[in-house]
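Sharing in case it's useful to others searching the archive later.

Someone asked me privately for the predicted structure of Viral Atype inclusion protein repeat-containing protein, so I'm posting the question and my answer publicly. Question first, with the sequence:
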Amino acid sequence: MSRRTGIQLGARRKAEPQTTPKPEDKQPDVMPPPPSGEAPVPEHRERKASFLTRPKKGVNTNDSEQQDPPTQQPVEKVQQRKGFLSRRSETQSQTNELVSTPPHEKSGDEAKNEQKQSSSQTSESTEKETHKKRLSFLGRKSFSKRNSTENTGHSSSEHSATSSLASETTAEEVNRSVNAQIEEENKRLQNENEELKKKCDAQDSLLKTKMKSEMEAKKKVEILENEKKDLIDKMANENDGMSKLNEELTQIKNEKESINNELIQTKQEKESINNELTQLKTDNDQKENELNQVRHEKDEVIEKFNTSKEENEKIMNELSQLKQEKEEKENELKEQVKKMEEEKSKLITELSNGSDGISKLNEELTQTKQEKEEINNELNSIKEEKKRIEEEKNQIINENKEIKEEKEKIEEEKKELLKEIEKEKEGNNQLQNEINTIQTRMKEIEEKNQEIICDNNKEIAKFKEEQENLQKEL
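And my answer, the predicted structure tokens:
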């Protein structure tokens, strides 16, 4: 806003050229022609009344010379200046209404701008009041001049002298009162400026704590503010650009809303990323627990496999022992059969020798038959045991095959889990990289916010200097 006040003062000075009368450009005091039906005023009375229009020492008469319609400035210029001031106040009110935002959406720069606008508006209001007072005083002065010139048309020279003395005294008193009012207003303005300085310092300390927004939004707002200032500069010289300024202000608001929406979206994305990270951590924990369970099951299967191997070895040892026993029994039976045949041959020889041994042979044959049946029964039992052992062996082989298949499945599942864990690790690394980029961006934003705070402090210092210059000019 400091730039705006300087621009407005420059436009005012352009609109109000201070034309102090030079000794070369001074023209003789020429009074307006008298109204119809009145006698003309003599020249010596006009010369005596001309001191009313001359500037006093120690009084700034630039405004009086510019605003006195019968002396130098015409009425049309005064009306144009009033119209320009009214239009400028209307444009300022419109821009203030358009730029005004609710308190919960205002940033630090906007609060500073509002403070500067309020200070500039107070200074402008005080200047307008002093200007109105001067205009009223000058109007009364010109009215007293005309009355004095009309009344002195038919009066004597003594009456004109007394009236000139009275007008000099009244002019001095009025100048004193005006100077006193100006001093009081200057003091009041100084007090207001000190209060504004205090408020600005307090609000600067508050703004330093609240400046935490992103730099991209700040840059866009600064660009838009510069465009707005350029438009205000153009509005000081042109009144047709109000529609463009309003459109650009609406664009500024829309862009500001979009920036706020982008900020909200970035915050939501950050929250979603954090939620995904927590979910991934929980998933990793679950998968680690599953891996531990699979390892435990694998250990159990390996133990079972080892136990089954031991049992198989025991069974094979038992089979080998049974085979050896069977072979031994077969050998024994063969030997017994051989013995029986030998005994049979002996008996036959004995029978041939005598009939008494027939009975003995028959008995021995029956005994041999019984023994043979017992041996056959034992062989059948051995065969059945052998079949049973072979069936158990086949069952054990099938169980071993199933165990191997389960082991292969577990290894495949393990490989798949390892692949998923690697993928999740890659995703976690990507998320960590994104988080690091976000943190670096946040650091850059904080640095740029500090730069903005320094720029704002510089603008405040410039604003204070301009206020001091205004006080000096007043």
